[in-house]
Structures are given as structure tokens and as C-alpha cells.
Prior knowledge:
- By secondary structure, this protein is α/β, with parallel strands linked by helices.
- The chain folds into 2 domains: 10-116 and 336-459, Rossmann fold; 119-334, FAD/NAD(P)-binding domain, CATH 3.50.50.
- It is built from 17 helices and 20 strands.
- It has helices at 22-32, 53-57, 64-67, 69-76, 99-105, 134-142, 153-158, 169-179, 182-185, 192-199, 221-227, 246-254, 256-270, 373-376, 384-401, 425-440, 452-459; strands spanning 14-18, 41-46, 82-86, 90-91, 97-98, 108-111, 117-118, 131-133, 161-165, 205-209, 233-237, 278-283, 286-294, 297-308, 314-324, 327-330, 334-335, 353-354, 357-360, 363-370.
- The strands form 5 sheets. A 7-stranded mixed sheet has the order 3-2-1-6-20-19-18, sandwiched between helices. It has a 6-stranded parallel sheet with strand order 8-16-9-10-12-11.
- Strand 14 (297-308) and strand 15 (314-324) form a beta hairpin.
- The longest helix has 18 residues, at 384-401.
- 46% of the residues are buried.
- The mean pLDDT is 94.
- Bound molecules: flavin-adenine dinucleotide.
Amino acid sequence: MTSAMRSASRDDLRVAIIGAGPAGMYAAEALLASDHCQNARVDVIDRLPTPFGLVRYGVAPDHVSIRSVRDTLDRILDRPGIRFLGGVHVDDGTRGIPLDLLRASYDAVVLTYGASTDRSLAIPGEDLAGSISATEFVRWYTGHPDSRPDEFTSLLSRASRIAVIGVGNVAVDVVRILAKTRAELEHTDMPEHVLAALEESAVREIYLMGRRGPAEAAWTTKELRELGELADASVRVDPRDIVLGPSSAALVADSKVAARNTAVIDQWVNQEAAHCSRTIHVRFFTKPVRLEGGAHGVESVVVERTEISESGSVSGTGEFETIPIDVVIRSVGYRGIELPGVPFDVQRGVVPNDQGRVLGPNGPIRGLYTSGWIKRGPSGIIGTNKKDAVETIKALLEDLDAGHLPRRRDDSDPTSVITGPVVDTQGWRRIDEAEKELGAQRSRSRTTIHDREAALRVGAPRD
Ligand SMILES: Cc1cc2nc3c(=O)[nH]c(=O)nc-3n(C[C@H](O)[C@H](O)[C@H](O)COP(=O)(O)OP(=O)(O)OC[C@H]3O[C@@H](n4cnc5c(N)ncnc54)[C@H](O)[C@@H]3O)c2cc1C
């Protein structure tokens, strides 16, 4: 049935949210909790068979309490009016369902598709075999369906020296996962092939390196402290690295986080070295300038010592060092990618917007909104996406009330335009149960089903 050009209304609103990560789930919750929106219908669409985005495929599996946020997100799916539609890739029709087709079936579309790729280091040798991104590595150890089970098995079995470049929380997660023993990871939901590959890995020396000093590193103290509490890994810091220049000292005086972080690092310098199977070398003022190697892959990373000026800028000192390395994991940030047909700010890797209203060349595009990492870039904690989603939904409802939302052209169920198997909310619940059963077989609360086809078989039975 085709509707006349009436504008949409709150009691008959139909919204599609593209991406079932925290931003998408919080946007759905904010919408359905709004006044007079009890009858609204919200479809949260994801290209993966499972919801919750990086809460499943980013947050470190050994951070069990943070990962339990998914239980909170899962309860949102219990609300009347919301449907999860998993396994549905939205694009321009090349690989998945065209966004334009969806826009015709909904009064508004909210883009919450996250930041799925990585930033590059932009140094020679970055493309050598054995130079991988934290994005790929995190996907593998969390059991993301896009990663192959054996993707890093042989690399880890050969790599005794690994460099992790970057000093954010993701880099710390990667180092911790590499340094932990099987016993320390056994309780997690990691797939069995990941646990086995990590247990059999040859990793002995892990270098965590960043261009700036201990005061400037962007990690939380709790995460940092954990590195010093591992069962069979010790931390080493060069005493030279804890000498702070004037701008770093001012930062420590001003910021509680910087003060706490530097205190943890000072302790590591002063502690007696324990005899452990693995050593984590935390290296500050260390800028990788190139990766060296050959057909077999990376063999070393050449680094330059840096210094921080009084104004806080970083520059090279001309002091170079070559560190033999078997694998390099680059962890210098996530980055959003363009959804064909949607405006995109290439510089920032985000969808340009004003409080969530997607901006085209002539101002806001009617009925198109955005939230989460693709709206503001990869920053903040999970909870930041809630406030962000509330802002976007407020803008959407203001536009709706002002008569600025064009009513959907097509009133039929939007799933009729979706081809291929779809995992709905009940299908996701079946996957959830299957993961819990798999976990129970190994005395764990859950084991992630990493295989897309297996998840689809359970979640989207074909008749
Ligand atoms: C490695 C890592 C560890 C982290 N650890 C923590 C932590 O410990 N604590 C914390 O507070 N925060 C953590 N974060 C940050 C947190 O995960 C993010 O703030 C949050 O996930 C961003 O939410 P989002 O919904 O914008 O994006 P995402 O969570 O990325 O969700 C986007 C969703 O969109 C889907 N999608 C993408 N493209 C399409 C498409 N074309 N069609 C359909 N669906 C699509 C994706 O499959 C995904 O499910 C971590 C992030 C990373 C990367």
C-alpha cells in the first residue's frame, strides 16, 4: 500500500536503526521511552547475526564485568515495538540491502554503524607480512565472524617477540591477552581455537611502545595496573622513561589520571624483576619510523627516541634503535568508513551531522540521523553512546513534531525487501542459548560461536 504525502506522527512512527552496537541499542531505547512513542516500531538492523557490536567484538573477553553490559543491552530487545534483524548488510545494494530501499519503508533511518577499520601508522614496511592491525587481532580473539579461526595461529606459534604500537586502552588489552596464561583466560567466552592458539604461542617478549611519555598515555589506571598483576608476565620500564619534562610534570599536577598512571609506572621501575615466562617492555618516547623485513615478513622495527617540548609537542631526537621483532600489532585508533550514498567526512572518518541530523551539501537530510562512533569518532566509553543517542533521538522527534519527517512511501513490512536469512530477536535468543550451552560443556558461562554459518543455522532457520 502506498501512503499519501502525509507527515509521520509519533503514534505510527517506524524507524530503522543501522547497527546494533551500544549506539543503536541506546537509540532504540531512547525512542521507545519517549512520550507518545509507545506504538512506534523500531527495527535494529545489523550485518552480523548477533547484536551488541563492539561490546561483543571489542571489549576484552577477560573483562567479564564490562562485557556484561550486553545483558543490559539485551533487555532493550524485550521492549514491545523493537525487532532485531541480524545478518542484514546495508549498503548501496552491491553486497547487501540498499539504504534507499530501507528509507522508503521507514519514516526515519538512524545510522549507528560504528567505526570498523583502523588508522594507519603511515611508515615504510607497514604492509609487510606479520604487521597486523589491532582491529584484526581483536576481531580474531573475540570470535568475530569476519575472522578466520586459524588467522593468527601459525603467526603466534612462530612469534617470540611482538611489538604493540600505541598507548591507548586497546593496546593494553592486546598486550594483556597475549601475556596471560591459559588459566587466566579459561573462564572467558573466547572460542576454543583462540584459547589453544594463545596457549601454544611462542610469545616471550612484548614491547608496548608509544611516542609520548607516561603522563600523556591515554589509558585508564585500572587497565594499566592489571599489566603488573599477571600470573606469568613481568613488566619492565626504562628508568630514563619516567623522567618528566616541564609540560609532562604540569600535566601530572593538573590531571588525577595522569598522576595515578605515572605512579603505577614509577612502581614498575623500582620493583625487582620477577622471573616469568613473558616480559612486557613498556617503552615511552619511542616512535616507530619503519618496519624492516623481507618476503617472510617483519624482522625488526626501527624506532627513534622522542622528546616533549615545553609546549607539549613531540619531536624526534635523532637517536635510533633497531629492535628485532617477529610481529607488529598497530593500535593507533579505529576509523569509520563511508556508507555509499551517505555524506562522509573523509578527514574525520565520520558522517557529518548537527546533533545527530545528517548534513548534506544543502543542510540536514530529512529523515536521516546518526549516533555513536560513526557520528562523533571512536572516543568515550560505552555509556557515552547513551547520552549521544538521546541527543540524536531528541533531534529526530523535534523534526517529527515540526512535520519535517517525510512519511514512509511503503507501508508493507520492510523485511519483505530483505533477501537472505535474517536472524530476528527470537533467533538471537536461540544463538544466545546455544552459546551458553557450549560454555556449560567447558564449565564456563558462555563460549562465542564464531562461525557465521553456524550462527545463521541456529538463528535464522531456513524452511
Ligand atoms: C577493542 C575495543 C575495546 C573496547 N573496550 C571498551 C571497554 O572496556 N569499556 C568501554 O566502555 N568501552 C570500550 N570500547 C568502546 C565501545 O566498544 C564503543 O564505545 C562502542 O561499542 C561504540 O558503539 P557503536 O554502536 O557506535 O559502534 P559498534 O559497537 O561498533 O556497533 C556498530 C554495529 O554496526 C554494525 N554494522 C557496521 N556496518 C554495517 C552495515 N553496513 N550494515 C549493517 N550493520 C552494520 C556492526 O556489525 C556493529 O554491530 C572498546 C572499543 C574497542 C574497539
